[in-house]
Design a protein that fits this description.
This protein starts with a strand and ends with a strand. The protein is built from no helices and eleven strands. Strand 4 (33-39) and strand 5 (46-51) form a beta hairpin. The protein is an all-beta fold. It is globular.
Length: 123
């Protein structure tokens, strides 16, 4: 069983930055690909970024490429999402998730989810 807890969300002006963290309880986090997803009010949950279990490969949604960076520290069982040049359309609840290797953008491929952290970007 893997328990995930996100932190770092908040209110920021457009153009600003936030760094989200996802702390995991499992000692075997390095067996999982880790993804970040977000959900805006009234919309479906969408893929943001994913990082391979080894940390040597990543993938991003087109809407965040060049602005967001996903990273992980397996020794600390933590995954990060650095978000720069934030836009109002980045507003939503951000979730981290753990899944078997495959760098999947499909949320259904992930087995474990955190409770989410809210990000609000004002214009």
């Amino acid at each position: 069983q893997v328990q995930l807890a996100e932190s770092g969300g908040g209110l920021v002006q457009a153009g600003g930055s936030l760094r989200l963290s996802c702390a995991a309880s499992a000692r075997t986090l390095n067996s999982y690909d880790m993804g970040w997803f977000r959900q805006a009010p009234g919309k479906e949950r969408e893929f943001v970024a994913v990082i391979r279990w080894s940390g040597d490969s990543t993938d991003y949604a087109d809407s965040v490429k060049g602005r967001f960076t996903i990273s992980r520290d397996n020794a600390k069982n933590t995954v990060y999402l650095q978000m720069n040049s934030l836009k109002p359309e980045d507003t939503g609840d951000y979730y981290c998730a753990a899944g078997l290797p495959g760098l999947a953008p499909n949320p259904r491929m992930y087995d474990y989810w955190g409770q989410g952290t809210q990000v609000t970007v004002s214009s």
